[in-house]
Design brief:
Blueprint: H1 23-36, H2 39-65, H3 73-84, H4 87-102, H5 106-135, H6 143-182, H7 186-214, H8 227-249, H9 253-257, H10 261-291, H11 296-305
Length: 310
C-alpha cells in the first residue's frame, strides 16, 4: 500500500492517453482490482453511509434552495429525482423529506442545514476511505483533517449540484435575459438552450472529478473530465434507467418485501451507485499507473531492501 506522497502523479500525464494499455487490458486490470480490493463489499458499506447521509444532504440542499427568491424549487427537484430513481424509492425519499421540512420552521431549517452538512459529510468520509482502499493508498491524515476535507468536499459538491440545478430550472430564462442584454435575437436563445445541457453534464462530471481528485490521501493532477468520471456518470445514468425498467416490468419488490419495498429499492440503488463510483475510481487509478513513468528512486529502494544473494 502506498504512503501519501510516495508516488506523485506526473503533472504532464494524460489519463486519456495511457501508453500501451488497450481497452481489453484496462478492463482486465479493473476487474482484478475490483476483486483485490473488494469493491462490491466496499460499495455495500458505502450504501449504508449513503442512506444515513442522504436525507441530511437533501435537508442541507433544501436550506440552500430556501435562500433563493423563487418558491417551489424543491418539488421540481424531487420531480427530476423521480425520473432517475426507482419509483418506490423516489416516493419514499419525497415523503420523508416533506415530513422533515413541514415539521421544521424556517430558522430551525437553516440551523438544521448546518448540522445536516456535518451529518452528510459522513457519506463523503466513507467515500474517501473507499477511494484510498481502491487506489492502494495509506491514509495518514489526522481525524480532524479527514473530517474537514469531507465537509469541504460535501459543501463543494453541493455547490456544484446547486449550480447545475439553477441551470436546469432557470436555463431558458437566463438565456432570454442574456440575449436581451446583448441585443441578440431568438437564434442566441436557441443556441443557449441547446448548450445548457452539455454545460450541465460538465458540471456533474466536474463534481465527480473533484471528489476523485481531492478525496484520496494522495492528490492527483486536476482534470475537468477523466475517463473514470465519464464512465461513472454514463454508467450511473444507465444503471438508474435499467433499474427503473427492471422494477417496472420484471421485479415486484412490494410483493416480496411488503411495506419496506421502497427502502430495499433505495438501498439497492445506493449500493449500485457506490459500485459505479468505485469502478470509475479504479479506472482512473489503473490509467494513472499505466501512464506513470518509471521511478529510479523506487528501484533504488527496492534494491536496498532486497536480501543478499537475490
Amino acid at each position: 500500500m502506498e504512503q501519501p506522497g510516495s508516488r506523485p502523479a506526473p503533472a504532464t500525464a494524460s489519463l486519456w492517453r495511457p501508453g500501451g494499455l488497450t481497452l481489453r487490458r484496462l478492463a482486465g486490470r479493473v476487474y482484478d482490482r475490483a476483486w483485490e480490493h473488494a469493491i462490491l463489499d466496499r460499495a455495500a458499506i458505502l450504501s449504508y453511509y449513503f442512506l444515513f447521509a442522504l436525507f441530511p444532504a437533501l435537508l442541507f440542499l433544501t436550506a440552500l434552495l430556501g435562500l433563493l427568491p423563487t418558491p417551489n424549487l424543491m418539488p421540481q427537484l424531487m420531480g427530476y429525482a423521480a425520473r432517475v430513481m426507482p419509483r418506490s424509492a423516489a416516493a419514499l425519499v419525497i415523503r420523508t423529506l416533506e415530513e422533515v421540512v413541514q415539521g421544521a420552521s424556517g430558522g430551525l431549517l437553516s440551523i438544521g442545514g448546518v448540522a445536516a452538512l456535518w451529518a452528510a459529510s459522513s457519506g463523503m468520509a466513507s467515500i474517501m476511505a473507499a477511494l484510498d482502499a481502491v487506489g492502494g493508498i495509506a491514509d495518514q491524515r489526522s481525524w480532524w483533517r479527514r473530517r474537514l476535507t469531507a465537509v469541504g468536499l460535501t459543501l463543494a459538491f453541493a455547490l456544484f449540484t446547486l449550480t447545475a440545478l439553477l441551470l436546469l430550472f432557470f436555463g431558458i430564462r437566463i438565456g432570454e435575459i442574456v440575449a436581451a442584454s446583448i441585443g441578440k435575437g431568438p437564434l442566441f436563445t436557441l443556441a443557449w438552450n441547446v448548450l445548457q445541457w452539455p454545460v450541465l453534464v460538465l458540471l456533474v462530471l466536474g463534481g465527480i472529478t473533484l471528489v476523485y481528485h481531492l478525496a484520496p490521501a494522495r492528490a492527483r493532477p486536476w482534470h475537468w473530465v477523466t475517463p473514470g468520471s465519464a464512465f461513472a456518470v454514463l454508467a450511473w445514468l444507465a444503471m438508474s434507467y435499467g433499474l427503473r425498467l427492471y422494477v417496472r416490468y420484471l421485479g415486484n419488490y412490494n410483493a416480496t418485501y411488503g411495506s419496506i419495498g421502497g427502502v430495499i429499492l433505495l438501498m439497492l440503488w445506493l449500493y449500485l451507485s457506490g459500485v459505479v463510483l468505485l469502478l470509475g475510481a479504479a479506472i482512473d487509478s489503473e490509467l494513472e499507473r499505466a501512464g506513470a513513468p518509471a521511478r529510479p528512486e523506487a528501484k533504488a529502494t527496492a534494491g536496498a531492501e532486497a536480501p543478499p544473494g537475490t
